[in-house]
Specification:
FAD/NAD-binding_dom, 448 residues, single chain, alpha/beta
């Protein structure tokens, strides 16, 4: 890096940050990509990592490896914690709590969203979300350990608690998780236990709406509902989870009816998202408006009002109802890179136009729903289309081939190749022998 070229600081290595930095890789600027995990994670497949189909390495790639041949792109490990717009400087925190400063001429905030518990942060201790690799591994540990613990218990209410799984939120992630757990219980684990019958495991799916996958057409949601019911998923609509504790959940009807308790030892949360702390801080110091979830209002070119050098892309961009999907982040990243290039060339910026490339949700083996403009598919065709779309956007040729190979093996056989999970027991005081993860819970609490 020359040191005298324009400095572009990109915060977040998700789809938005990745595509923006890639497009600037041959431009006469110096790019710094700051990410708190130093890897790009393919979030749409996190649930397959959580349920043992895919490994961490198949859905993630080192950012340093990704930009190995982009000599003007530097990747740094750290979490943005403070923004000084007047000095054009961001302060970041390393994992050891030390801090360092990064100056910029252009700032691209692509930090994404985190799981929202709607003010009930205490739920997080018992109900992990699905936004990070840590979340996926936590869910894997909870799901597979639940079956293992049930195997050592006599028949009765306590065993039933361990064989009951509650999922909050019937959007794509909730539907995919619920379907995968039932498929896991009825197919992959069906013949591996002696004391329990895994196929008797109950999966309860709760949502405040009146149907699953509300962003899809009614015909596709009806199809998804039928498949879920055939799998054995128990659907509960018009309710919200009002309490989560170690041994169960309380569900309250939205119409004001009596609440109901469900005994379960595994609760998974996919019900909402909110801005990460840095995004809320950035909006405050930039004087930008935000919506209820913390999305930052942006101009037509995705810049922040009064700060043409600051862009917000992906889930965080609050404009014209932009959806919180990967395609929005990718297109936003490419648009911002083009805007920076136009600035350097002395040309005017263009307004961002989101192009809806469709939506897809996997339900079970051989069943998925796909919606691309007027094209609507379900069943095996939807499943094939879903697979092709996800393979196309996976980073790294090796990951694509590996994932296809794993999927083919899973189709042919019932087993899942990546079911390993880690418990404590190393002797370290912060790692007692437990199915839960005190270390992970501590990290989540520290972020709040």
């Amino acid at each position: 890096m020359t040191g005298d070229r324009p400095k572009v600081l990109v915060i977040g290595g998700g789809f938005g940050g990745l595509f923006c930095a890639r497009r600037l890789g041959r431009v006469d600027v110096d790019v710094t990509l700051l990410d708190r995990t130093a890897c790009h994670v393919f979030q749409p497949l996190l649930y397959q990592c959580a349920t043992g189909t895919l490994s961490i390495g198949q859905i993630s790639r080192s950012l340093r490896e990704e930009f190995e041949h982009h000599r003007n792109v530097q990747t740094l490990l750290g979490e943005a914690v403070r923004l000084d717009p007047s000095a054009r400087r961001v302060t970041a925190r390393r994992p050891d709590e030390s801090q360092f400063d990064l100056d910029y001429d252009y700032l691209v905030i692509a930090a994404g969203m985190r799981q929202s518990y709607f003010g009930n942060e205490e739920f997080a201790a018992w109900a992990p979300g699905m936004k990070t690799l840590d979340d996926a591994l936590s869910i894997r540990r909870r799901v597979f350990a639940a079956f293992e613990i049930a195997e050592s218990l006599p028949a009765g209410p306590e065993r039933d608690q361990w064989l009951t799984f509650a999922v909050a939120g019937a959007g794509p992630t909730g539907v995919e998780l619920a379907g995968q757990i039932r498929e896991l219980a009825t197919r992959s684990l069906a013949n591996e236990f002696h004391s329990i019958e895994p196929e008797e495991a109950r999966v309860l799916l709760f949502d405040g709406g009146d149907r699953v996958l509300k962003s899809f057409t009614p015909a596709l949601t009806d199809r998804a509902t039928r498949v879920l019911e055939e799998l054995g998923v128990e659907l509960h609509f018009g309710v919200h989870v009002s309490d989560v504790r170690r041994d169960g959940v309380t569900v309250s009807p939205k119409d004001g009816g009596p609440s109901r308790d469900h005994a379960t030892r595994t609760v998974l949360w996919t019900a909402g998202v909110e801005a990460v702390p840095f995004a809320r801080h950035a909006a405050e110091v930039l004087g930008a408006d935000t919506d209820r979830s913390g999305r930052i209002a942006v101009n037509a070119d995705l810049s922040v009002a009064g700060h043409p050098e600051v862009f917000v892309i992906g889930d965080l961009a609050g404009r014209d109802g932009l959806p919180g999907v990967a395609e929005n982040a990718m297109q936003g990243g490419l648009h911002v890179a083009a805007s920076i290039r136009r600035d350097l060339d002395g040309r005017g910026r263009k307004a961002f136009r989101y192009r809806d490339l469709g939506s897809a949700a996997y339900i079970s083996r051989g069943h998925a729903v796909l919606q691309v403009g007027p094209i609507k598919m379900s069943g095996a065709l939807g499943w094939l289309g879903w697979g092709l779309i996800h393979i196309a956007f996976l980073t790294g040729v090796r990951n694509r081939f590996s994932t296809v190979g794993t999927w083919l093996a899973t189709i042919a056989r019932a087993n899942r190749s990546d079911r390993s999970f880690i418990l404590g027991g190393s002797g370290h005081p912060e790692e007692p022998y437990t199915w839960e993860s005190p270390v992970h819970q501590g990290k989540r609490s520290a972020d709040q």
